[in-house]
Amino acid sequence: MGILSGKHILLGVTAGIAAYKTASLVRGLIKAGADVKVVMTPAAKDFVTPLTLSTLSKHPVHSSFTNEEDDNAVWNNHVELGLWADLFVIAPATANTMAKMANGVCDNLLLATYLSAKCPVYFAPAMDLDMYKHESTKASFEKLKSFGNIMIPATCGELASGLVGEGRMAEPEDIVSFIEADILDKLPLKGKKVLITAGPTYEAIDPVRFIGNHSSGKMGFEIAKASANLGAEVFLITGPTHQKVSHSLINVLPVTSASEMYDEAHEHFDEMDIAILSAAVADFKPKEVASQKIKKKSDTFSLELERTKDILASLGEIKKGQFLVGFALETNNELENAKQKLKRKNLDLIVLNSLNDKGAGFKGDTNKVTFIDTKNGITEFQLKSKAEVALDLLNEIIKQTHA
C-alpha cells in the first residue's frame, strides 16, 4: 500500500497513438492501490478498445453522454464522474484536447467531466515533435498550468512519425511515480518521521503464561496509516496483535514485552519529529520468570511483580524538540488524571478516553476521545471510527507544530 492506496482515479484517454499504453497505466494505478475508472473521447476508441480498459479497471468505460447501443439509454453523468474522482489523469493528452481544455470547449464527455472536476488534474502530453514545439501548444501548456493543472512532461524518443525528439508520452510506470511523488511532496508530514507504539505487551510468567491486556492495537495502526497517508515515514513499534498493515512508508517493528518496546522506542526516538505512544504497556511484570512451565501444586499461587520501565516518561525526560503524545485510558476522575499525566510525563498532548464511554476503549472499531494540551486547551469529540480519530489527532498535531 502506498500514497495512491484507496484513491479514486479517473483516467481520461484521448485519441493519440500513445493510448495503447493506457492498458499498462490502468494496471499500474490499480497495483498502487487505486480504484480506476476510465472516460474516453470517441476517437480514442480507434486506438484502444473500451473492452480492454473496462476489463482491467473492472468498471464500465464511458465515451459518450449516453450508452448509444442501449435502447433504454442512461445518461452518463459527467458531474458525478468529476465528483467521484480524487485525481483526474488525462493520458495521453493530445494537442487537440489540451487546446479545448485551455479554452473551455466542451464537445464530448471527457471535456465536460474535466470542466466539472474539483480534484487535482494531471495531464500527460503526447504528440509529434513539431506539434509539441508549436507556439499554440506551448500556450496550452502554460494556460493549463495557470489553472492549477499539473503537467507530466513528455520525454524524448522515437515518435510515431519516425522522428526522434520530444513529445513521447511518459511511460506508464513513470506517470504513476510522478503522481505519487507530486502528492507526497505536498503532504503536510512530508519529510517528518513519526514513532508510534501500538497494541499490548506480554510479560512472561513462564514459557506458557503471561500477563497481558485486551488491547487490539487498532488505534495505533490507524494512527500509523493516517501518518503515512499524510506523508510521514512511520516507525510502528507493535506488541502482539492480529492487526496488519502494508504501506511503503510504514516500518513495522514487532516486540513482545515492555522492556523490548522500551529499547526499540529509545533506539529510534532521537531521529523522530513526532512520537505517539498509544500502546497499552503493562505496568508490572513478574520479578522472576520461570524457565519451565509452572506446575499446579496447590489451590493458591503467589506471583511477585515489579514495575516495568515507563516508556512515555523516559522519552519525556530526554526529548529535544520532538512532539510527544501520550494516551490516558481512565475509569474515574478522567480529566484530572489525564492533566496530571500530561504534566508529570512532560508531554505536548494527551489523548483521553474513558472505559465509561460506550463504544470506546479496547478491541472496538470506534473511540471517543478528548485532547488536552499544555495550555490546558480541551477539545472533546463525539464517538467516531478509530480511523477518524487518528486523522483528528494528526490534524491537531499539524496545527500545533505549524502554529
Automatic annotation (TrEMBL):
Keyword Flavoprotein belongs to the record: yes
Recorded GO CC terms: phosphopantothenoylcysteine decarboxylase complex
Domain Flavoprotein, first and last residues per copy: 7-179
Cofactor info, note text: Binds 1 FMN per subunit.
EC number(s) per entry: 4.1.1.36, 6.3.2.5
Co-factor requirement: FMN; Mg(2+)
Pfam families named in the record: DFP, Flavoprotein
Segments forming domain DNA/pantothenate metabolism flavoprotein C-terminal: 189-399
Sequence segments annotated as region (Phosphopantothenoylcysteine decarboxylase): 1-193
Region annotation (Phosphopantothenate--cysteine ligase) ranges: 194-403
Keyword Membrane on entry: no
InterPro entries assigned to the protein according to its UniProt record, in alphabetical order: CoaB-like_sf, CoaBC, DNA/pantothenate-metab_flavo_C, Flavin_trans-like, Flavoprotein
Domain of life, source organism: Bacteria
GO molecular function (one): FMN binding
Family statement drawn from the similarity comment of this UniProt entry: In the C-terminal section; belongs to the PPC synthetase family. In the N-terminal section; belongs to the HFCD (homo-oligomeric flavin containing Cys decarboxylase) superfamily.
PANTHER family to which the protein is assigned, alphabetical: HOMO-OLIGOMERIC FLAVIN CONTAINING CYS DECARBOXYLASE FAMILY (PTHR14359), PHOSPHOPANTOTHENOYLCYSTEINE DECARBOXYLASE (PTHR14359:SF6)
UniProt name for this protein: Coenzyme A biosynthesis bifunctional protein CoaBC
Organism: Hyunsoonleella aquatilis
Gene: coaBC
